[in-house]
Write a structure and sequence with these properties.
The protein has about 300 residues and is mainly α. The chain is built from twelve helices and no strands. The longest helix has about 40 residues, at about 210-250.
Length: about 300
């Protein structure tokens, strides 16, 4: 999904001016965030009733636009007042991408499957209970998705700002606003399509024609696979993009790895190591805080 969107951007950029070219470059650099954004936001609406899926996606999309209305002016202000902050912000964003990717891996290998199944069972039981306030549950999901979107949007804006930092203010504004709008429409348009794949499959599987039924069964089978592919591709892209940002931001590391074959693989390895170090640091601080609070 993300690669198709980026391919479209590439085609458009070949016939447009410098603004479009910068937009294309910025969009490619944010591919890791975009892939993860798709998977995360599609998962956020899991468990919501079918007739409420699109309204929830639309509510989160509006929240995402508000996030970007905050982040784009903030990025422009930083570029104008303290441009030296752009590189540190990029490094922080890259480190966070690596941390988030490594945390996913750690959760997959260290978290018990029984805990995930228990959480899903609890959610389904709540949805089936008429005494549960489904509207409150829906609002909680929307708030959680908007918080997630704010973090991912901040990463996208920071990476984009690094791309256009040396450009005139008008170009910076156009590219930042264009990327923000494009990513919002692209991500949530695709999320809306993803969460309705199973409904489309169910509808087709109930039709009289054998061809429609076969297509419906195919869509029903493809929906969970698509979610897994998005999650894996998003995690891998986070290591590649985050590691690449760190490599280019650390001159000694950039010179050390420059010229080596399969440079993207080294970027990914740097991302994995950086993510592990940040996770270890965060875990250490959390445990130290717990010990301090007990005293």
């Amino acid at each position: 999904m993300a690669s198709s969107l980026l391919a479209l951007l590439d085609d458009i950029a070949t016939i447009l001016d410098d603004v479009a070219v910068l937009t294309k470059v910025a969009a490619k650099k944010t591919a890791g965030v975009l892939g993860d954004d798709l998977a995360l936001n599609a998962q956020q609406v899991a468990g919501v009733r079918a007739d409420r899926e699109l309204p929830v996606v639309w509510a989160v999309c509006k929240g995402s636009l508000v996030n970007k209305l905050i982040l784009v002016p903030a990025a422009l202000a930083i570029s104008a007042v303290a441009p030296w902050l752009v590189t540190p912000l990029l490094m922080v964003g890259g480190a966070f991408l690596c941390f988030e990717g490594f945390e996913k891996l750690a959760h997959k290998f260290l978290h018990r499957a029984e805990d995930d199944q228990a959480h899903k069972a609890e959610l389904m039981q709540a949805l089936a209970n008429p005494e549960v306030d489904l509207l409150a549950l829906e609002k909680d999901k929307i708030k959680g998705a908007i918080r997630t979107d704010f973090i991912l949007s901040a990463e996208i804006i920071a990476i984009t700002l690094g791309t256009v930092q040396a450009s005139p203010f008008a170009t910076q504004f156009t590219v930042l606003a264009g990327v923000a709008l494009l990513m919002t429409v692209g991500v949530y348009g695709l999320v809306a399509g993803i969460v309705k794949i199973d409904d489309a499959g169910l509808y087709l599987s109930r039709q009289s024609g054998s061809g429609a039924q076969a297509l419906g069964r195919g869509l029903l089978g493809a929906a969970p696979i698509l979610m897994k592919v998005l999650s894996v591709a998003g995690t891998a892209a986070m290591f590649l993009v985050g590691g690449g940002i760190l490599v280019h931001g650390l001159p000694f590391l950039h010179h050390l790895l420059e010229g080596l074959p399969l440079g993207f693989v080294w970027d990914g390895l740097v991302g994995v190591v950086a993510g592990g170090l940040v996770l270890a640091g965060v875990t250490g601080v959390q445990r130290a805080r717990q010990v301090f609070q007990r005293k």
